[in-house]
Structures are given as C-alpha cells and as structure tokens.
Fold this protein.
Amino acid sequence: MNFFSLPHRLWWSHHLAFLLHDQLAETLVRGEEVELFLIRFPLVDDAERKSLENIDDGHVLEWLQKSGRTDEAKQVLERTLVHGLLSDMCQFLFESIECAAKGKVGVAFALLRKPLRDQLFMLEWILADRDDFLAAFSKGPEAVDLCDLLKKRPDWMKSITTSALSHSAYSELGDGIFLWESRFDKAVHWSLEGDWSRALHLVTTNRHYRTEVENLNLTFIDVEDRAALQERFYQIVPGLLCHLCGVVRAITERWDPEFISMGRFFNLRLVANLELSAREHATEAIEPFGVDAINEFLRELCIECLECKQPLQLAGTRDLERFVIDLLVRCNQCGFLDAQLELINDVDGTDDESESNANDLVE
C-alpha cells in the first residue's frame, strides 16, 4: 500500500478501503482454490456421460436444462456470474482506490460506477431473490438494464437493496435506503451519481450537478477542489465496500456454510479500522467501539500476556492501530508486545497489500 500524496487524516480510511478490497480478492482466490464456483452432480449412466462429453464448449447450461437438471443449471449460472462479477469489480476497485490516493480524483470516481452501481446491485439482486434475477437474466439484456429499471421500478430497486442488506453478513453496519440513495438518487447530496457523471462527461445538464458556465467537469480543478473530492471519496466509498463484502460473504456462505473467507479476526479488524476511520472524519467525540469489541473478544478467550500472565486488554487508539495492522496487543501491565493472536488466526485473510505499510500507519 502506498499513500502517495494523501493527507494523513485520510490514511486509515484508505487502509480500510484496501482492507475491504483485499477481502473480496481473498474470497475470489480461496473460492477458486476450493472450487467454490463449481458444482458437482452425479451422472445417471454411461449414456448420459457420453452425452455430456460430446457437447460443445459453453453449452453446459443448455444440456442441463434439457436433461431436467433445472436446479443444477441455476447453480452453474449463479456461481459463474458471481465469479465473473467479483473478478472484474476487484480490478476496477483496486485502480479506483489507488487513483484516489494519488489525487487522480476524476479517474477514481469514473472507475467506481461499474462496480459500486451496476455490479453491486446485481449481487444484491442475486442475494435477495436469486430465482428472480436468473429469470430476468435469461430473458435478455433489457430485463437487467439498470437504467431502464431505475426509470420504471425505482421502489422495487430500493426493496432489493434493503432486502440484500437484511441478509448481509454486515447488516448492522448499513442502512438500506442510504445504500441505495448513495448510488442511484441524483437529488441527495451524498449520492455518487453526480461524482461519476462529472467524471465520465465533460458537460452535464442535470439540475443537481449542472456544469458551470464556461467550465468543463473536473478539468480545471484546483488543489482545494481535489482535496475536497478525496475527502468525499473516503467518506462514502468504504461504507459501500463494507456492504459489498457483506453481500458477497452472505452469497458464498449460502452456497457452502463452511466456506469462510472473512472470519472473526477479519471482523474485529474491520470494526477496529472503522473506528480509526471514523475518528478521521469526526466532528465530535467517538465512542471506542472498536476497542470495546476487541477487549470483549480477548476476555472471552481468556488471553493472558505471555510475559506477566495478566489479562490482555487494549487501552486506546494506539493499541487499536497495532491490532489492525499486525494483530499485536501491548500488555498494559508490563508493556510486552504480544503476538499470540497471529498464531491462532487461521482465517484472517489480510494479505500483503493491506499490511505492507504498517510502519507508516503506526510509527
């Protein structure tokens, strides 16, 4: 991770964005390793086996449907779609977050539209009502065209987002209406619609984000404007990424409850990073919800300092930072820097990208 010219007050928000991106990528990689995106089904006899072996590439769905294997056909289509969406969106999100840190705000917002507007809604739809989505997908592109759906069925779209949130692994961290408005409602000031429209078009005439006279969108922005757009990016995007992670986790665990790409250690890191990020943007005192959550976890496990045998507990923001980066806990009694949490963490999933700048963040 590189913070480039990003102001120090946004570093933890940037780290949070990459932490969430990395978990999506980890889900993809681990899922491929255990063949989560594939399905297995028994063949009735040799004749059916030969029939399957003789089909052309790409016609498996047609063969399954003709063979009366409707449920298997749905599973293949769903898992193939989720794999493709997840793979593509990770690439867009990585570049967008990195561009935001570099101050390339126009590029950052332009790259966000596809993953956080279109692809996220399709994943929400799959989670909320898989059969309805697959039926629409099989009808043709018009049935899943979000621009058309937004004109004809906006209330239904809101209900899909709200329903997906209720099934999400992180439902307590979001608000369904806000999650929908921040991506689709042109009228509210917290919506990204105006940001990515300005990023994609030199001139916009919508009354909510109309181009100024004798100006072009995001072409002549000064240092202050660039800083304001960076601030806006990191105020809104991490929350949407958190929702995205919750949706993806819920879908994959519906397929296989034993598949865990975002375990308890990631959840604790997420809550801790959320507190650190919230402190960057707060205008009033923030409750230490990250510290409290981790301390409760430490008490549950009855973890003691390896040096002085006293119970381990976090004391404040500095301790929180160490936990997020390296799962380190400094003993409040003797000062020993305890690393035993890393030893018992078998499903953390944080890769080198989100750990590589620990010294910049903590020291």
Observations:
- Confidence is low (pLDDT under 50) at residues 346-363.
- Residues 11 and 144 are 37 Å apart (CA to CA).
